[in-house]
Amino acid sequence: MASRCWRWWGWSARPRTRLPPAGSTPSFRHHFSTQEKTPQICVVGSGPAGFYTAQHLLKNVINTFTQTAHSGRCAFWGNVEVGRDVTVPELREAYHAVVLSYGAEDHRALEIPGEELPGVCSARAFVGWYNGLPENQELEPDLSCDTAVILGQGNVALDVARILLTPPEHLERTDITKAALGVLRQSRVKTVWLVGRRGPLQVAFTIKELREMIQLPGARPILDPVDFLGLQDKIKEVPRPRKRLTELLLRTATEKPGPEEAARQASASRAWGLRFFRSPQQVLPSPDGRRAAGVRLAVTRLEGVDEATRAVPTGDMEDLPCGLVLSSIGYKSRPVDPSVPFDSKLGVIPNVEGRVMDVPGLYCSGWVKRGPTGVIATTMTDSFLTGQMLLQDLKAGLLPSGPRPGYAAIQALLSSRGVRPVSFSDWEKLDAEEVVRGQGTGKPREKLVDPQEMLRLLGH
Ligand code: NAP
């Protein structure tokens, strides 16, 4: 799906309960002139969590996001920011239930000296930049250095390393933005280090992403076999996915590559490496103090077992010179509205199986419910569970009784505030425009990155 400027996409979904006879329901958005008797549900957010929740509320008869969006019982409204254009209490007043699925749009800060220096940026902003998120288009990362350091060893760190090291001629055939491609073509980055405070058994990335990295054209891996000593025995006891991942790391670090792979590695002009047992302490300034020139790392060792394995400093320090530092230590949700409880330490809305604590009729799903972890299948399961809880409450009569106006009331509010929501067919127009713009260049699409241009194209 193309990325868009509209940060909060709203959904209105009507669950299957008390459906009008089949074929009698016109498009949802044309349906309300008075108070609606059927349950009115608003889903805030149109990422995987929002889509999967809506899908479950429509009872799983629909199996893709586009089909969900086209359902006559579902309407999609974008270009609306909850917390700014409309409040959660207003949504709760208009709907029988509201589901918050707005994800994690902030990054966790390192909280170390030097983090604010030019040459340091969050991996999240970097990903947003090359993916065409409007709010990250000003990033202009300086890729004139030889070495980049990524702090963290999760999938985002691998994504960023891959983009930094992929030969530009390969990126030309992807949907990366034209501007990012231009900067990456001029890049002088040859080596990327991914730094983890713990060891190979604790990396946070997954095997598919690691495999892609190992096979990256023109790049060779740098792994120190010393980091893998004794691991062969330990991996016998770990769960299967972790075992397979560690075996791949172990093979890459310790086995002599076959002739073909050896030749590939010998001709590679770029390299990436995993640095283990190193915890970031400070971003080091250049001699003139104007930008980042390296990272000071505390050497660590592990204490504890399994999930409780912690990195503790040994007292030794090490400096890793570089010209670009990308912090990739996880994402963080933001509170959306003062009326919604928020656990700022964990960065989630306190909930029990998706029911927001102490707020009847308010639910959450996805990263804002459980924190920014897991792959897309995790979000699907988690969102279906929230949908299930909501339907259970509906059936048990726990949601407000009496009719609710649904979107009709919100539309009136938005209109009085000068907000111009966009529909799913608008979204499809922009999607088609991006595909047209990509044609002739061999790209699947050229992303639109300017919200004003998007609105102009829609005639708003
Ligand atoms: P993540 O998976 O939580 O990884 C964060 C990394 O940062 C870990 O290596 C963690 O090490 C480290 N870290 C955390 N705090 C640190 C600190 N204070 N100092 C040093 N290191 C620290 O986060 P992510 O990479 O941002 O990914 C977010 C989610 O998106 C994940 O669930 C990921 O799988 C998902 N994602 C999936 C894909 C995909 O499926 N292709 C792509 C991108 C993202 P510790 O383990 O020691 O804490």
Tell me what the structure shows.
The chain has 16 helices and 18 strands. A 6-stranded parallel sheet has the order 6-14-7-8-10-9. The protein has a 5-stranded mixed sheet with strand order 3-1-2-4-18, sandwiched between helices. A 3-stranded antiparallel sheet has the order 11-12-13, with no helix packed on it. Helix content is 32%, strand content 19%. The protein is globular and about 70 Å long. With 460 residues, the chain is α/β, with parallel strands linked by helices. Strand 16 (351-352) and strand 17 form a beta hairpin. It binds NADP nicotinamide-adenine-dinucleotide phosphate.
Short description:
This protein has helices at 48-57, 65-70, 88-94, 123-131, 155-165, 168-171, 178-185, 207-214, 231-234, 240-254, 259-267, 367-370, 376-395, 407-416, 424-438, 451-457; strands spanning 10-13, 41-44, 74-77, 97-100, 106-107, 120-122, 147-151, 191-195, 219-222, 270-275, 278-285, 292-303, 310-321, 324-327, 331-332, 351-352, 355-356, 362-364. The chain is an alpha/beta fold and 460 residues long.
Ions and ligands: NADP nicotinamide-adenine-dinucleotide phosphate
Percent of residues in β-strands: 15-25%
Strand order of the largest sheet: 6-14-7-8-10-9
Structural class: alpha/beta
Q: What is the tally of beta strands?
A: 18
The mean pLDDT is: 90
Terminal Cα span: 22 Å
Question: Which runs of at least 5 residues are low in confidence (pLDDT < 50)?
Answer: 1-11, 16-34
Helicity, in percent? Answer: 25-40%
* Helical run tally: 16
Q: How is the biggest beta sheet arranged?
A: 6 strands, parallel
Which descriptor suits the 3D outline? globular
Gyration radius, to the nearest Å?
A: 24 Å
